[in-house]
Amino acid sequence: MTELPADLRIEHRKQLPDDLLFLIEKYPRETWDGHANLGEMARFWLQRHDMFRELSGMLQGSVGEYREGQLSPVDFAQWFAPRLRFFLQQLHGHHQIEDLHYFPVFAKAERRLQRGFDILDSDHHVIHEALERNSEKARAFLMSLQEQDSDRQRFAADAYADENAGLIEMLTRHLADEEDLIVPLILDRGEDNLGLAGG
User: Fold this and answer.
1) N or C, which end of the chain is more exposed by having fewer CB within 10 Å?
2) Alpha helices, DSSP H, located in 34-190
């Protein structure tokens, strides 16, 4: 993993550096959907990103509902636990595919974007650590729901909510930056030329 300057780390970054955004200037987001080169792989990949956004929002919302007394501990745990497990597993697998397959293909296709893929790779490591912390806090939170100590439950809910908010903030930034780097490259070159068709 490349060591990044503090301002490029996912915890602090507001966007990718300007020198990496030359393709999105050519292919702004509003042109993506109708573009002939937005193939099946890119559409599937963007759908996965949308799923992660939707699921993270649902998880965050359910914690808020529990904290506001709109969900009982039992109802909350039954709804929350399987969805969190699915979210964490899917996100981990998604990042592995990107690191091992997609990022090397994209970086080879456009050498000027190599630093961008180093940034995204660094993001994956930071997000993976955040996923581990999220899982630990969630486990403690769910365990507290089996006890009768309302103070402990509230403390565990607050600790998880803080950890989850940090993860979602980083994930939201990462997904947007990843899309800004990759989708314009696909539109510029085409999935066939990149060796991605049918993938």
Assistant:
1) N
2) 40-67, 73-97, 103-109, 114-144, 150-189
Banded pLDDT at 74 (limits 50, 70, 90): confident
Can you tell me the distance from the alpha carbon of 132 to that of 57, in angstroms, rounded to the nearest whole number? 19
Distance CA(135)–CA(149), nearest Å, equals: 21
Which of 23, 153, 174, 169 has its CA nearest to residue 76? 153
> Which residues, other chains included, contact 162 with Cβ-Cβ below 8 Å and sequence gap of 6+?
none
Q: Which two tokens stand for residue 149?
A: 């100590």
Convert the pLDDT of each residue in 19-60 to its tens digit. 999 999 999 999 999 999 999 999 999 999 999 999 999 999
Alpha carbons 192 and 190: distance in angstroms, whole number: 6
Task: Provide the sign of the torsion angle of the four alpha carbons 15, 19, 25, 29, taken in this order.
Answer: negative
The residue assigned the tokens 């089996």 is 146
Q: Is residue 1 over pLDDT 80?
A: no
For 123, other C-beta atoms within 10 Å of its C-beta total: 25
Which token pair is 43?
A: 């559409």
Q: What is the token pair recorded at 62?
A: 């359910």
Across residues 121-149, what is the average pLDDT?
92
The fraction of the chain above a pLDDT of 90, given in percent, is 83
Structural domain spans, the chain:
36-194
Distance between CA 33 and CA 79 in Å, rounded? 34
